[in-house]
């Protein structure tokens, strides 16, 4: 019986609370319906404007950026570093003054590079520095502010100049060539023109060994091919007289050939005389027929290497091919070693 009364009390309390919440929500709904949204928006905007005007009357600190223009480069010289295109200074003033300055575009500070004193370095380049605070007058003439600070960022502008020179530089082909089975490259690919005139800072130009081409990628080659390639210049300070070259790759079918070559002695032991058995070995190799026709008796050289008296403990001498054509492909010796006798 007591449990039934407790449940009735809880249920009555729940219904009462639900009723009160419903009445509160209905009251809020009626109040919102009576609000004039347009009037509320106008009041919000006006209050924001009043807050902004009051805030702009306070003092603030701010960094102002000033663009920089460089003019009158020394004749025969070029700038090899990248000085900043702007510098900044910290100023202090009323908010409305700073807002006006921020909205207006600043006139650039013009720097006459012909009037700067340069110092020559051990690398035969010329360096100079200018303190940015030297341009404070240019800033004061543009700004009507309460205070312009003495801290400039960066505090100095640095310049590095080098002489402009010209030089012809070889062109290097970058390639990725895949040949059909039984074919290979014949001679070095031709590049026309083989050199390019490069203009730029002396230290860089004089250190150039070559200018590379874009990669020549060809696959399944079974005949000669030509292509125009762009030169790959990654340095913005260098100017090339030409931008493209013509490349030709000659392709020939290769075959297997064999030649007999005498075995020579290569030794650092004075007056040593050795006779090898056999006296000649056969070299088998792959080569194009046009290259094969250009072979001579001196195209190959095979030596038996003797570099110490320890060879006396060995029955055979190891052979080594010390000279062969650059155009040769796979190469095999009929024997990797030879027997020998010492001649007295």
Task: Note down, in words, how this protein is organized.
With 344 residues, the chain is of the alpha+beta class. It has three domains: 107 residues, RNA Polymerase Alpha Subunit, Chain A, domain 2; 89 residues, RNA Polymerase Alpha Subunit, Chain A, domain 2 (Beta Complex), CATH 2.170.120; 88 residues, RNA Polymerase Alpha Subunit, Chain A, domain 2. The protein contains six helices and 22 strands. The strands form four sheets. Strands 9, 16, 17, 18, 19, 20, 21 and 22 form an eight-stranded mixed sheet that branches. The protein starts with a helix and ends with a strand.
Q: What's the short version?
A:
The protein has helices at residues 2-34, 37-56, 95-103, 136-140, 202-206, 289-292, and strands at residues 59-71, 77-79, 86-94, 109-112, 119-120, 126-131, 147-153, 156-179, 183-185, 190-192, 195-201, 211-221, 225-230, 239-240, 244-249, 251-267, 274-277, 280-288, 301-306, 316-323, 331-333, 337-342. It is an alpha+beta fold and 344 residues long.
Helix and strand topology:
Elements: H1 2-34, H2 37-56, E1 59-71, E2 77-79, E3 86-94, H3 95-103, E4 109-112, E5 119-120, E6 126-131, H4 136-140, E7 147-153, E8 156-179, E9 183-185, E10 190-192, E11 195-201, H5 202-206, E12 211-221, E13 225-230, E14 239-240, E15 244-249, E16 251-267, E17 274-277, E18 280-288, H6 289-292, E19 301-306, E20 316-323, E21 331-333, E22 337-342
Parallel strand pairs: 1-4, 8-12, 16-19
Antiparallel strand pairs: 1-3, 2-8, 3-7, 5-6, 6-8, 8-11, 9-16, 10-15, 11-14, 13-15, 16-18, 17-22, 18-21, 19-20, 20-22
